[in-house]
Specification:
CATH class of the largest domain: Alpha Beta
Shape: elongated
Distance between the termini: 103 Å
Number of domains: 4
CATH superfamily of the largest domain: Response regulator
CATH architecture of the largest domain: 3-Layer(aba) Sandwich
CATH topology of the largest domain: Rossmann fold
Radius of gyration: 43 Å
Oligomer: single chain
Helix content: 40-55%
Strand order of the largest sheet: 4-3-5-8-9
Length: 493
C-alpha cells in the first residue's frame, strides 16, 4: 500500500460559528483504518473537527513536539515501532495534548501499560462507533483542559513560592522540612538538601519556644506572627516572625505550610532609633535644666555681688532674693526627681468623685486667684475604680493646673464631669483656654516638651504614666483659641 503522508505546518485552532474547531491527528500506518476512524469522527454532530493523517512515527513525534494538534489517535502498530513507544517518547518531552491508543484487538496488558504511560484512553478498533469516539474526544479534551489549568496554577504558585523574599516552606506534622524555597536556604544558610533532613525545632535558639509552637498548633491549628529567634548554620541569630497553618491533602495526610519573615534588620533599626531618641531626650533635659536653673542662679549671683559690695541698701532685700531663687532651684530638682520615681502602687477600691474632689481642693487657690469659674457635674452614685488615690489625685491635679494656666483671668471656665457609660467611667476636664495647635497636640505627653516660659514639661507626661498604670485610656481634643478637653476612661471596679 502506498502511504500518502500529509504534511501540515503548525496552525491555530480555527473558528466556525463562534466555536473552536478541534484539530485531530490520526497516527496510523494503514490508510483504510485512518479513513474508517475519520468517518466515524466526521459523523459527530457539529462539524467542528479538522482531521489529518500521519503514517510515520518520526513525523508524528515531531508534530507532537511542535504541539500542532489538540488530540492524537495513535495506532499500536507503527511498522517497526509501536504506538506505546510513541506515547512514552511524547510524554517524555511534556506533550500536554491527550493521546488515545488504538489497537486491532483487546489486550488487557497493553491497556494497563498505555494508561500507566500516560494515555488518556485505550480503544479497540473493532468496537469503534461515532458515539464512543464522540464521548472519548469530549472526555479527553475536558480532562486535558483541567490538567492544563492545574499545571498552570502549579507553575504560577511555584513561581510565587520560589520568588518570595520570605522563607516559605512545607513540613510534616513533626515540622521536618519537606519543601523549601530559595529564600529559606538563604535565611538559614543551609543547602536545600540539608534542610530536608532537619526539623524547624532544631533551628530554634530558645527551646522554650518549641513548647509555645506545639501548644498553639494543638489548640488553634495555626500560628500567626510568632516572634522567634532562629539559629543559622553559621551560628548567627536572626529575629523572625513565624506563621504556620495545618493542611490536609486528598489522601488525608496532614502537613504544615509555613512562612518565616526576617525582621532582624528592622529590630536593629528600631533599637538604633530608640537609642537616638534617648539621646535626644537626654539632650533636651540638659538644655531645659540649664535654662531653668541659670535664671535663678543669675539672680543669686547678682544679689551676692550686691551684698559683697556693701551698698547702703537693706541687705534683707538681697537675702530674700537669694532664698527665693534657691527654693526655685530646689523645686526644679524635686520635680525632676519625682518624675523619675515609679514607686509602689497602693491599689484599693475608691470613688472617682472623692479623688477628684481632693484634686480640686489642691487647685482651689489657683482657681480663686485667677477667678476661674468652676462647674462640677458628677453621677448620682459613687463610681468606683481600683486605684492608688494619691497618685490618681496627682494625675488629675496636673491636668487641672495645665487647664488653669491655659485660661485668662476673670474669663476662664473649667468644667469637670464624671459619668458612667456601660462598664466604663469617663472623667472629662474641659477648659475654654488658648487651645493646642495640631503640631503640639501630637507632642503633648512627651517628656520635657513645654510651650510655657517656665516649667520642665513633666506634668502631663507624669499624668499619662499615672493613668496608664491604672489601665485608663486618655484622649485629648483641642481647638486653638477655643479650648481643650481631656477625656480619661477607666474600667469600673
Amino acid at each position: 500500500m502506498i502511504h500518502n503522508e500529509k504534511l501540515y505546518s503548525k496552525r491555530p485552532i480555527t473558528q466556525q460559528g463562534g466555536l473552536s474547531r478541534v484539530r485531530i491527528l490520526i497516527v496510523e500506518d494503514d490508510e483504510d483504518d485512518f479513513l474508517i476512524v475519520s468517518e466515524y469522527i466526521k459523523k459527530i454532530p457539529g462539524d467542528k473537527f479538522i482531521i489529518d493523517w500521519c503514517p510515520r512515527y518520526k513525523t508524528a513525534l515531531e508534530k507532537m513536539r511542535q504541539e500542532e494538534y489538540d488530540i492524537y489517535f495513535v495506532d499500536y502498530f507503527l511498522g517497526p515501532e509501536t504506538g506505546l513507544q510513541l506515547l512514552t517518547e511524547a510524554i517524555s518531552f511534556n506533550c500536554e495534548q491527550p493521546i488515545i491508543l488504538l489497537t486491532g484487538q483487546g489486550n488487557h496488558a497493553i491497556d494497563i501499560k498505555a494508561m500507566e504511560a500516560g494515555a488518556y484512553d485505550y480503544l479497540i478498533k473493532s468496537e469503534l462507533n461515532t458515539e464512543k469516539l464522540e464521548r472519548c474526544i469530549r472526555y479527553s479534551l475536558e480532562r486535558a483542559s483541567y490538567a492544563r489549568s492545574l499545571r498552570e496554577s502549579e507553575r504560577k504558585f511555584r513561581g510565587i513560592f520560589e520568588k518570595s523574599k520570605d522563607a516559605v516552606f512545607i513540613t510534616d506534622q513533626d515540622l521536618f522540612f519537606k519543601d523549601v524555597n530559595m529564600a529559606t536556604s538563604e535565611l538559614l544558610q543551609y543547602p536545600r538538601q540539608e534542610l530536608l533532613e532537619l526539623s524547624l525545632f532544631s533551628l530554634l535558639h530558645d527551646e522554650k519556644v518549641r513548647e509555645i509552637i506545639e501548644e498553639q498548633l494543638k489548640v488553634k491549628g495555626e500560628i500567626n506572627d510568632l516572634d522567634i529567634d532562629i539559629l543559622t548554620k553559621r551560628g548567627a541569630i536572626r529575629n523572625c516572625l513565624l506563621s504556620f497553618t495545618s493542611e490536609t491533602d486528598k489522601q488525608g495526610n496532614i502537613y504544615m505550610q509555613g512562612i518565616i519573615h526576617d525582621i532582624t534588620n528592622l529590630k536593629r533599626a528600631e533599637k538604633a532609633n530608640l537609642q537616638i531618641q534617648k539621646l535626644a531626650v537626654t539632650s533636651r533635659l540638659v538644655r531645659t535644666l540649664a535654662h531653668e536653673i541659670r535664671n535663678p542662679l543669675n539672680n543669686i549671683n547678682l544679689s551676692a555681688e550686691q551684698l559683697e559690695a556693701g551698698n547702703n541698701e537693706d541687705p534683707k532685700i538681697y537675702l530674700d532674693i537669694i532664698n527665693r531663687n534657691a527654693n526655685r532651684i530646689d523645686d526644679i530638682l524635686t520635680e525632676l526627681l519625682s518624675s523619675s520615681k515609679t514607686g509602689e502602687m497602693n491599689i484599693r477600691e475608691e470613688s472617682l468623685q472623692t479623688i477628684m474632689d481632693e484634686s480640686i481642693a489642691s487647685a482651689l487657690d489657683r482657681l480663686t486667684l485667677k477667678r476661674i469659674h468652676l462647674n462640677v457635674s458628677y453621677a448620682n452614685n459613687h463610681l468606683k475604680v481600683l486605684a492608688d488615690p494619691k497618685k490618681l489625685k496627682t494625675g488629675f491635679l496636673n491636668i487641672i493646673i495645665n487647664a488653669i494656666e491655659a485660661m485668662e483671668a476673670d474669663n476662664g471656665k473649667l468644667t469637670i464631669s464624671i459619668r458612667n457609660i456601660g462598664l466604663e467611667h469617663v472623667v472629662m476636664i474641659e477648659d475654654n483656654g488658648c487651645g493646642i495647635s495640631p503640631e503640639n497636640l501630637t507632642r503633648l505627653f512627651e517628656p520635657y516638651f513645654t510651650t510655657k516660659r517656665s516649667g520642665l514639661g513633666l506634668g502631663l507626661a507624669s499624668a499619662l504614666s499615672t493613668f496608664q498604670s491604672h489601665h485608663a485610656y486618655i484622649d485629648v481634643q483641642s481647638k486653638v483659641n477655643e479650648g481643650t478637653t481631656f477625656l480619661i476612661t477607666f474600667k469600673s471596679a
